[in-house]
Amino acid sequence: MATIKDSMSASYPLDRQNSRCGQAHWPHGTSDWHGRSVPLPCPPKPQGRRNQVLGTLGITGLALTLWMIIAGCSVTRKPSPGATLATRRSRQIARLVHRLDNCAVSNQARQRADRSLAMLLGAQSPIRLAALTYILHTTGQSSAMRIYALQQIFTANRTLAAALLKKYLPTWQQWPVLFYAGKVCAQCHDPRLVGPLILSLNRPAVRYQLSQRPEAVAIRDITGQSLRQVLTGTLLQPGSMEVRIAALALLRQEKGPAFVRQFLQHAAGDDPMISAMQWWIRHYRHVSVSTTEILWTQELYVEKRSPMMIRCAGNWRQLRGYVRRHTLTPAQAYMLAHLHVTPADITRSGLLQAIAAELRHQKHLRRPRPYPHAPGYPNPSLQSNAPRLTLLDMILLQDMLCGLSHSAFRQMVYRDGLRSMHNHASETGGLICYAHIPAGLAFTTPRTAEKSLTLHIFPPLLNRDSGVYVSSPMLLAATVHALAEFIFHFQHVHNARYVGPAVGDLAYVRRTRCAVVIFTSVARRAFDATLDLPNGAVVDLGIFHVHSPAMPSGG
What we know:
Strand order of the largest sheet: 2-1-5-6-7-8
Largest sheet: 6 strands, mixed
Radius of gyration: 44 Å
Number of strands: 8
Structural class: alpha+beta
Strand content: 5-15%
Helix content: 40-55%
Oligomer: single chain
């Protein structure tokens, strides 16, 4: 017979995994083996199942939370019909403006876009007028589109059209645009447009005579006077210096230098510009035309009692007996004040022979063509440029050759040229002056006053970050107190292919009316010197070597 113990153990097996100290965990009942009352423990919970359930609930909650966040961010309010219409309208206007100002689109499509803008915004809308103004002053626009833009602006707002003509007329280069702009100026009938018309008229013209240019016709229609009367009145009246200088250049082009000289000599008034020009014409026979020459004339007029101008006047009185038809430019006053030759040596043939003898001992280079069929650069030989050289040009050539014969000056040129290679943004230039100025006021001979030259470097300006050398206003103002300007072409030590003046250098000399010497490095401790004159003459002075053991590193 089985005992109670056996029956109970068979019916209720022990949970040995959860038993502790020999005690059995009974599923039912509250007594132990001896009948004593014991607390009934709770049934064990499955730990693995609990963790699985909690993990599932956590992942589900996290996913639900992320979904709610994403859904909340992505759900937006439904736009109202008015807001949708405004957005579509603004986008349509932006597309039309872009098409109107895009040069790659055909003119017909651009004009259709402008008509659509006029229908949407009105003909006088600031957005439409700004888009049309953009066509007037940007590069790459066709003549037809400039004419169309000017016509539409003039129809919508005449005041704005007159202001734009005053600002942009001198910058336009297309002849059809200039002809139409002249007609618009005549219709505006605004006297303030006379100045811009004179500035626009002062440009080189090949196909049209001065009196037949559209600007001249517009000037006559606005003022009711002849072109000569308008130009003379503009020259004598105080106003914009740029407009007055343009009027002076046009008078010289239309009537000739003799008329301008006679007109200025008999002009009345106490204007500083006219007084300085009258003083220079009376003493040195030259009529200054360019902007820099007029500025130099005024500066020398203020310093007419200075020692330099006293020496210049004395030497000119002695030289005038040998050169009857020669005139003195303001840029030559410094050289004439320190002239180191006697009047007996002032003969054209003698100077040419002396210069040719010195140049014959030098090796000469010439800038090659940039590509096979390109127009060639000027011939820098003395024989080709002799007809253009004046007497004082020859004296300048002789002084430059005399200065380059000194070893100290050659070392200075090469040393400063190597230092200019550190300037990667632009070229470097400055002024060439006499190192020792004699105290005498009369002519001296080379044996008694041997002159050496020196360099004064001026920091350049950049032309809109293009890396092009632009002389500073300080350099242009100080050129009247120097022999010539200079520019370094020392981009590389072996720079012989860029010897001599480039196209930009030639244009700079013509515009500023001052002589420029181009120093170009051609080899180690060797450079070439070329003199570029305002009258178009270009003379290569030769290759000069520097024999000095103490040179800066980097050459």
